Amino acid sequence: MKEFLEAALDGEMAAHLDEAERRQGNKRNGRGSKRVKTMAGEIEIETPQDRHSSFTPEILRKRETILGDCNLNSVQKHLPLYY
């Protein structure tokens, strides 16, 4: 689950940082860590950050710490893209 969430967040960041964003000076700016509670227990993931802090992930939103049922639907929607 950890690897999937990190890969999905990286993909969302890559889509966010399109040519227009980069032209405005926005680019990757390291990673932050985040603890997330799942049905299997608590995991710590690394989340990508951008310089302008304008990145708003869909699969696991900012300040969200519990991967609940509605998030699982989002994860299931993204699974075919990776597997």
TrEMBL record:
Q: What does the record give under GO molecular function?
A: DNA binding; transposase activity
Q: Which domain of life is it from?
A: Bacteria
The record's Pfam families line, in alphabetical order, gives: Transposase_mut (PF00872)
Protein's GO biological process = DNA transposition
Record keywords: DNA recombination, DNA-binding, Transposable element, Transposition
| Transmembrane stretches, start-end | none
- InterPro entries per the record? Transposase_mutator
Query: Which segments carry the region annotation Disordered?
Result: 19-56
Basic residues compositional bias, start-end: 25-37
The family assignment reads: Belongs to the transposase mutator family.
Could you tell me what this protein does?
Answer: Required for the transposition of the insertion element.
The protein depicted here goes by the name Mutator family transposase
